[in-house]
Write a sequence for this structure.
């Protein structure tokens, strides 16, 4: 790895169990961890639990991270992905995602409703993707990880990542085109 990891000093402080290091980690990484977990699990409360567990694991195991194997951000994303996968496996039989009906008080409630429906359609389409395609799409397009880091987090080659992304995008286009036709 040619560039030193920007998080290496933070990890050193975590290894020394400095409380300020944990606060710095939370400030720097928690929003992205929550974003990934929320997109994968589609449940904010569960995502918060995953983020908390990931932070605890990093706190306890910071000394395990090896900069020559992966960037810290990649290692952290891998921890979050694995925790999300575990939760998804445990709840496979649970499929209901009821959305309560609420009135939108804004003057342009119809526009907000259409945007929410579109967002829900995208979220459902992403959730319906095969697990590996969904993870690749989320890491690259929602977490903005470079391809090399996303591939490392998924423990696959760049070529395999590109293949997952291509298949996932094709499937999303087809699903979203179909859902838009049904709406018209």
């Amino acid at each position: 790895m040619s560039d030193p990891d920007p998080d290496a000093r933070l990890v050193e402080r975590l290894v020394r169990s400095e409380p300020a290091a944990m606060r710095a980690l939370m400030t720097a990484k928690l929003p992205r961890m929550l974003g990934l977990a929320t997109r994968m699990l589609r449940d904010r409360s569960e995502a918060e639990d995953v983020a908390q567990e990931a932070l605890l694991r990093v706190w306890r195991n910071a000394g395990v991270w090896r900069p020559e194997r992966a960037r810290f951000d990649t290692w952290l994303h891998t921890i979050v992905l694995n925790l999300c996968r575990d939760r998804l496996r445990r709840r496979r039989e649970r499929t209901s995602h009821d959305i309560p009906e609420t009135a939108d008080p804004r003057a342009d409630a119809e526009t907000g409703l259409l945007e929410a429906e579109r967002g829900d359609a995208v979220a459902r389409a992403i959730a319906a993707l095969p697990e590996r395609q969904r993870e690749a799409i989320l890491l690259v397009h929602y977490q903005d990880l470079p391809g090399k880091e996303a591939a490392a987090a998924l423990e696959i080659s760049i070529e395999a990542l590109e293949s997952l992304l291509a298949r996932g995008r094709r499937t999303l286009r087809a699903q979203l085109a179909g859902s838009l036709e049904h709406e018209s």
Notes: The two ends are 51 Å apart (CA to CA). The chain is about 75% helix and 0% strand. The helical segments are 8-15, 19-41, 44-61, 72-90, 109-128, 131-142, 147-154, 158-183.
